[in-house]
Amino acid sequence: MAIFWKHVKSSSPLLQRLKRHITGGHYLLSRSFTTTEGHRPTIVHKRSLDILHDPWFNKGTAFSMTERDRLDLRGLLPPNVVSSEVQIERFMVDLKRLEVQARDGPSDPNALAKWRILNRLHDRNETMYYKVLIANIEEYAPIVYTPTVGLVCQNYSGLFRRPRGMYFSAEDRGEMMSMVYNWPADQVDMIVVTDGSRILGLGDLGVQGIGIAIGKLDLYVAAAGINPQRVLPVMIDVGTNNTKLLEDPLYLGLQQHRLDGDEYLAVIDEFMEAVFTRWPNVIVQFEDFQSKWAFKLLQRYRTTYRMFNDDVQGTAGVAIAGLLGAVRAQGRPMIDFPKQKIVVAGAGSAGIGVLNAARKTMARMLGNNEFAFQSAKSQFWVVDAKGLITEGREDIDPDALPFARNLKEMDRQGLREGASLVEVVKQVKPDVLLGLSAVGGLFSNEVLEALKGSTSTRPAIFAMSNPTKNAECTPEEAFSILGDNIIFASGSPFSNVDLGNGHIGHCNQGNNMYLFPGIGLGTLLSGSRIVSDGMLQAAAERLAAYMSEEEVLKGVIFPSISRIRDITLEVAAAVIKEAVEEDLAEGYHEMDARELHRLSPDEIKDYVKNNMWNPEYPTLVYRHE
Ligand SMILES: NC(=O)c1ccc[n+]([C@@H]2O[C@H](COP(=O)([O-])OP(=O)(O)OC[C@H]3O[C@@H](n4cnc5c(N)ncnc54)[C@H](O)[C@@H]3O)[C@@H](O)[C@H]2O)c1
Ligand SMILES: O=C(O)C[C@H](O)C(=O)O
Ligand SMILES: [Mg+2]
């Protein structure tokens, strides 16, 4: 306090205001003021997030690098240091463009405004925020998560107010091991990390991709009951190849092209080492990495770290559950799955993830041997941006190679390398048409007309790309062309379609949100050091079995989001049971491995339920340190 008193005249109105704070007993800072002697530094007795959350001292993105180091702020702000003029410009631009950009295709025109209101509540009062979210999950999941989160990421530089989560940038190489201690929580259970390179179907959004990590973790809290004090959204900013962002003076990230090759890997390696050093029991979910790196990083880390890739593995499980649901909806047993002819549009991280898992599931049903695995391959036709993938493809992506069709065989089917989607659908007459292409409208009227020739008694259409405007088709288009005897699922939420005469075309949401929260929670509570294939398979099977026969026959193959907390509990319990059976479970807190082994299936569910956080105000008591 001495420094403070020295510089302030006793008559100053500021002094009077500060005195009131001090006598009120809750103001813990001292502050010096500009005097006639000129500018002097302000002494603060806060660091880290406390500074960012103090409106008197916060400068947001204008904190210089030296200040960020001095005040333990490194990593708590996006990497681009900007002037106060640019800060104001960003604010004004955002204010003016709000109305123009608040639309994402057919979704809620007020979505962005609702996101802002919820986000402000999130900043003020987490318990209340999650209470609102859980109680109204059907209404607000599409705001804090897909599809609005896509719009939020696209406009993030403008929407940015208070930082949330951590930023590790290419400039932080060599510093991450210490930076990680700038995060205030000693326990972190879940990290969702992105490098912003493929945000939903919106492409490279650079540092703005942090929004997706925040949205996913909102579901971890709301659906899986992970304690919000123990989640950490992370953005790894290695630059961006998005020209618009590289040229935008208001962009908050590093304005350089993305690092690649060994330089890129070195950054991700350093990040993984840092977070697992500080929080050895954390689980890291990789989200929205471009396919090029998604598979490589998964292979690199999955046997040494507790991690999984949601787009590759979570999506695969949700698609398997949906595909099995589609078989049941035809009135056939799940074991008939290996007979389904499946056309997949999109051979990126999600498409290939689904194909690998579907092939393995078929192979298991056919006898689980090499012959079964080989013959399962012939049930899939994969079409990417260059058309049908065959062995005749030049420079074929190694991840797609196992699904490349034999040229002679294709010739017999009237197909060739690069055949268009509509040709493939016409010739194959598939049971299922599944889209993970990020191309809105790809299932054109022509493609849907061609699907009328399907040999299935009830064809299935999975338009899984996000957000809304990237869906391969809308449910209206599908039901109007193919009638009501189909199964329809989309990645983003759509309403059911009124088909007249009391008929409703049911629109399922086939989104990895039905699995990732349970995979994370189950891994955490089992104490498994890795996320095994068996654990992922158990999660998918539990989701597949969740819907009753009656619901499935009505075309309802995924639960309503209002049941997400219950389905997450079930998925987590299935993951724990599998981890125990595979001898991977090492226990969690007071539940040791031996005791976990003794639990009955019902007791496992109780154990999960008892460990889920609920948004209730705790009683607070003040004590001096
Ligand atoms: N519903 C879900 O749970 C879920 C999960 C993961 C990803 N997704 C969505 O899936 C989409 C793709 O994600 P990704 O990570 O695989 O992306 P990606 O960029 O890695 O892959 C896109 C693929 O689509 C192909 N493609 C492009 N144009 C095409 C066309 N005209 N015809 C056929 N194929 C075409 C590309 O060649 C590529 O193989 C995104 O929109 C994403 O939001 C949805
Ligand atoms: O984020 C989603 O809604 C699903 C998926 O992870 C995606 O990348 O589209
Ligand atoms: Mg994703």
Automatic annotation (TrEMBL):
<comment type="similarity">
    <text>Belongs to the malic enzymes family.</text>
</comment>
<dbReference type="GO" id="GO:0046872">
    <property type="term" value="F:metal ion binding"/>
</dbReference>
<dbReference type="GO" id="GO:0042803">
    <property type="term" value="F:protein homodimerization activity"/>
</dbReference>
<dbReference type="Pfam" id="PF00390">
    <property type="entry name" value="malic"/>
</dbReference>
<feature type="binding site">
    <location>
        <position position="288"/>
    </location>
    <ligand>
        <name>a divalent metal cation</name>
    </ligand>
</feature>
<feature type="domain" description="Malic enzyme N-terminal">
    <location>
        <begin position="122"/>
        <end position="302"/>
    </location>
</feature>
<dbReference type="InterPro" id="IPR046346">
    <property type="entry name" value="Aminoacid_DH-like_N_sf"/>
</dbReference>
<dbReference type="GO" id="GO:0004471">
    <property type="term" value="F:malate dehydrogenase (decarboxylating) (NAD+) activity"/>
</dbReference>
<keyword id="KW-0809">Transit peptide</keyword>
<feature type="active site" description="Proton acceptor">
    <location>
        <position position="216"/>
    </location>
</feature>
<feature type="domain" description="Malic enzyme NAD-binding">
    <location>
        <begin position="312"/>
        <end position="580"/>
    </location>
</feature>
<feature type="active site" description="Proton donor">
    <location>
        <position position="145"/>
    </location>
</feature>
<dbReference type="InterPro" id="IPR012302">
    <property type="entry name" value="Malic_NAD-bd"/>
</dbReference>
<dbReference type="InterPro" id="IPR037062">
    <property type="entry name" value="Malic_N_dom_sf"/>
</dbReference>
<dbReference type="InterPro" id="IPR001891">
    <property type="entry name" value="Malic_OxRdtase"/>
</dbReference>
<comment type="function">
    <text>Involved in the regulation of sugars and amino acids metabolisms during the night period.</text>
</comment>
<feature type="binding site">
    <location>
        <position position="311"/>
    </location>
    <ligand>
        <name>a divalent metal cation</name>
    </ligand>
</feature>
<dbReference type="GO" id="GO:0006108">
    <property type="term" value="P:malate metabolic process"/>
</dbReference>
<keyword id="KW-0560">Oxidoreductase</keyword>
<dbReference type="GO" id="GO:0051287">
    <property type="term" value="F:NAD binding"/>
</dbReference>
<feature type="binding site">
    <location>
        <position position="287"/>
    </location>
    <ligand>
        <name>a divalent metal cation</name>
    </ligand>
</feature>
<keyword id="KW-0520">NAD</keyword>
<feature type="binding site">
    <location>
        <position position="511"/>
    </location>
    <ligand>
        <name>(S)-malate</name>
    </ligand>
</feature>
<feature type="binding site">
    <location>
        <position position="198"/>
    </location>
    <ligand>
        <name>(S)-malate</name>
    </ligand>
</feature>
<dbReference type="GO" id="GO:0005739">
    <property type="term" value="C:mitochondrion"/>
</dbReference>
<dbReference type="InterPro" id="IPR015884">
    <property type="entry name" value="Malic_enzyme_CS"/>
</dbReference>
<keyword id="KW-0479">Metal-binding</keyword>
<feature type="binding site">
    <location>
        <position position="466"/>
    </location>
    <ligand>
        <name>(S)-malate</name>
    </ligand>
</feature>
<protein>
    <recommendedName>
        <fullName>Malic enzyme</fullName>
    </recommendedName>
</protein>
<dbReference type="InterPro" id="IPR036291">
    <property type="entry name" value="NAD(P)-bd_dom_sf"/>
</dbReference>
<dbReference type="InterPro" id="IPR012301">
    <property type="entry name" value="Malic_N_dom"/>
</dbReference>
<dbReference type="Pfam" id="PF03949">
    <property type="entry name" value="Malic_M"/>
</dbReference>
<keyword id="KW-0496">Mitochondrion</keyword>
